[in-house]
Amino acid sequence: MTSPDVEAAEQFLAASARVLERRRFERLFRGGDAGPVRDAVAAYRNPDGGFGHALEPDGRCPGSQPLAIDFALRVLLEAGAWDTALADGACGWLAAHAPAGGGAVFVDPSVEGWPHAPWWVPEEGGPPSPICTGLLAGTLHAAAAVKRDGEVGGGPAHPWLSQATELLWSRIDALADVGPYDMRALFWFLDHVPDRDRARAAMEKIGPMIFDAGMVALDPETPGEVHFPLDFAPLPGSLARSLFDQQVIDAGLDHLAAAQQPDGSWTFNWMAWSPVAEWEWRGHMTVEALRLLRANGRC
């Protein structure tokens, strides 16, 4: 069983990663406090309550973006650094910029005129994106289930989340013409939405689609921008774990641990369109790889 070199990863982060990733590593692997993670995330916040400024490395604009908001909230959640004021402000931005019918667009038009990945293109008409809506709703539902200060975090669902949840259920009920990133976001939503019976039934219905449409590569050595079982079912409690044999999961974990680079980092398999974005993603992926390996008993 392959294990990662945590010390080498720490050295890479110290040499080449953002303050945010260094603070995350300190919090998750060195017993650091939650406050510095919260402060590092808050540095990317805009006065409108959203997040931008290349927090999500592929969008280099200062303006708030749905993917940057999910990035921020996910970091806060996973580091145990949840901040209700930051989350409420983000939900306020989402509500103010929601398409008709709810949810979130894939890319807000504020990206126009700023450097960004070639796939960061606002969709004509601004329809709700299954990717952003699923990610954000899943993260907010996950946060609401975490107990903080003796109470269930978040209280009643924000109106944006309630509307987004209904939108996602309607999309899942009539799911068609989706890609792997859509499915990963929907699986994240199903892992955390409160109606567990409905979530399990939905997974039984839509889960096999990733095989039918060739969205998942079972061989961890498959090159290119492909999606692996651990992308769809990263944690032992993921609903999508039922779709894969344990041997497949174990092979993926072995490969992930062995994929650590000589400099201590992990990299990614999509296009590196910008040198700065590439290094920022490598820092993020390094913390993510360690976190996933630890959650699966490999670190």
Structural overview:
Mean pLDDT is 95; it is low at 148-154. This protein is mainly alpha-helical. The N and C termini lie close together (11 Å). Helices cover 51% and strands 1% of the residues.
Order of helices and strands: HHHHHHEEHHHHHHH
Runs with pLDDT <50, length 5+? 148-154
First-residue to last-residue Cα separation: 11 Å
Quote the average pLDDT.
Answer: 95
Walk across the major sheet and give the strand order.
1-2
Strand content: under 5%
Task: For this entry, give a set of tags.
299 residues; mainly alpha; two-stranded antiparallel sheet
Summarize the entry for a quick read.
This protein has 299 residues and is mostly helical.
Produce the secondary structure layout.
Blueprint: H1 6-16, H2 19-29, H3 35-42, H4 66-78, H5 84-96, H6 130-144, E1 147-148, E2 151-152, H7 159-173, H8 180-192, H9 196-206, H10 209-212, H11 229-232, H12 246-258, H13 275-295
Antiparallel strand pairs: 1-2
